[in-house]
DNA sequence: CAAATAAAAGATAAAAAAGTCTTTTTATAT
DNA sequence: ATATAAAAAGACTTTTTTATCTTTTATTTG
C-alpha cells in the first residue's frame, strides 16, 4: 500500500510531533536512529516534507525539525500526498483497470469499506491528534510536550 | 499490498478458471491480451504457477493452460504464497518493526480486522469458488464451464 | 516422420525504488 | 567576524521490480 518512503515519512512526523517543539528541535539523524531508518534516506524525505510545508526546519547549531501550529494541523493524508501521491487509493486491490461497483473484483467488497475508513481517518485527524493517540496507545508522555 | 506480479497472477488464474478447461486450453498470449498484461511477463508468472502445481499446462499445438480438479481447489492465498510470498501479511501497515497489540501504530486497529477478513477469504475460498463469484458479480457465464 | 505450435528456460534490459555520498547554504554561538 | 552545526541540494549507486527477447523442449497433427 504505502511505499517505504511513505511509511518512514509518517512515522518520522509523528515522532517529531511527540519529541520536539519550536524550542527543542530534533535532528534527522536522531530520528533515523530512534526509528531505525537509514539516515541519509530519511533526510531526503524530511526535505520534501519541509518544502511542502508539512514540517518546519531550522539550519545551523541547535537547528533541526519541529512542527509549527500550522504543521500540527496537517494530516497524514497530506504526508502521503506529498511523498507517495494519492492515486493509489483509487486503484483496484487486484489491479483491475477500474475499481467500482459495476465490475467489482473478488476483494472489492472487503477492500472498499476498509479503504473508506482509512481515508476518513487519514484525512480528518490532524497530525497532533494522531501523535497523541499514538503516545497514549504506547503509554508514553514526553517531557517536551509539557513545555510546548 | 500485492505486487503487480501477484495481481497479474490472481487475475490470470481466475480468468483461466472461467474460460478454459482440460479440453479447451487457453494460451498465455490470449490471457495477456484480454487482461491487458504484458505477454512475456505473464508467461513467466504462469510458468512459476505451473511449477508449483497451482495451474496446469500442456505444450504444443492446442496446448495452453487450464486448471485440473486439484488446481481448482487451491486458493488465492496459494497463488500469493507462490508469487509474492506471505511475509507481507505479518508487517505493520506503517512499517513498524512489530505489528501487535502491545505497540500498535495508529492504523493498527483499522488494518488488522481488514487483514483478518481478507486472509480468511483468501485461505478458505477455492479458486473455482472465487472464479464463480467473480463471474456472478460481472454477469457472465461462460460456455466453457458448461461442458467441463 | 516432419512441421507447426505452444510452453519452459534463461539471459537481458529497462524502470522504479531505496539508499549513499559530497558539496553548498544558512543559522547560531562564541 | 569566525567557526560550527545542521539542513538543502543534487549527483550517484545499488537493489528490486517489471518487462523483453531468444533458444530449447515437448506435444500434436498431418
Ligand atoms: S474492483 Fe477491485 S478493489 Fe474495487
Ligand atoms: S502495528 Fe501497525 S498495523 Fe499493527
What does this protein look like?
The structure is a homodimer of 148-residue chains. Chain A has eight helices and two strands; from the N terminus they run αααββααααα. Chain A is mainly α. The first copy, chain A, has a domain at 4-85 and 126-146: Orthogonal Bundle (Arc Repressor Mutant, subunit A). The first copy, chain A, starts with a helix and ends with a helix. The mean pLDDT of chain A is 94. Chains A and B meet through α1, α6 and α7 of A and α1, α6 and α7 of B. Bound molecules: FE2/S2 (inorganic) cluster (2 copies). The first copy, chain A, binds a DNA duplex (30 and 30 nucleotides) through residues 3-5, 25, 27-29, 38-41, 43-44, 46-47, 50-51, 57-65.
Cα radius of gyration of chain A in angstroms: 17 Å
Uncertain residue segments of chain A: none
**Which shape of chain A, going by the Cα principal axes?**
elongated
This entry's quaternary arrangement is homodimer
Helix- and strand-based class of chain A?
A: mainly alpha
Number of strands of chain A: 2
**Beta fraction of chain A:** under 5%
Quick structural gist:
The structure is a homodimer of 148-residue chains. Chain A contains eight helices and two strands.
What secondary-structure arrangement, pairings included, does this model have?
2 copies of one chain form a homodimer.
Chain A: H1 4-19, H2 28-35, H3 39-51, E1 56-58, E2 64-66, H4 69-72, H5 76-83, H6 108-124, H7 127-137, H8 143-146
Antiparallel strand pairs in A: 1-2
Helix pairs in contact in A: 1-3, 1-5, 1-7, 2-3
The structure holds FE2/S2 (inorganic) cluster (FES) (2 copies).
One FE2/S2 (inorganic) cluster (FES) binds at residues 92-94, 96, 99, 104-105, 107-108, 111 of chain B.
The structure holds a DNA duplex (30 and 30 nucleotides).
Amino acid at each position: 500500500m504505502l511505499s517505504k518512503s511513505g511509511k518512514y515519512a509518517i512515522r518520522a512526523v509523528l515522532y517529531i510531533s511527540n519529541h520536539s517543539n519550536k524550542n527543542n528541535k530534533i535532528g534527522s539523524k536522531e530520528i533515523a536512529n530512534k526509528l531505525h531508518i537509514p539516515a541519509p534516506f530519511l533526510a531526503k524525505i524530511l526535505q520534501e516534507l519541509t518544502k511542502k510545508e508539512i514540517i518546519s526546519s531550522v539550519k545551523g547549531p541547535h537547528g533541526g525539525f519541529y512542527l509549527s501550529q500550522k504543521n500540527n494541523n496537517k494530516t497524514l493524508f497530506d504526508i502521503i500526498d506529498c511523498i507517495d501521491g494519492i492515486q493509489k487509493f483509487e486503484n483496484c486491490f487486484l489491479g483491475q483497470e477500474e475499481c467500482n461497483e459495476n465490475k467489482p473484483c473478488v476483494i472489492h467488497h472487503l477492500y472498499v469499506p476498509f479503504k473508506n475508513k482509512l481515508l476518513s481517518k487519514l484525512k480528518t485527524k490532524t497530525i497532533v491528534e494522531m501523535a497523541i493517540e499514538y503516545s497514549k496507545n504506547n503509554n508514553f508522555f514526553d517531557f517536551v510536550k509539557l513545555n510546548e
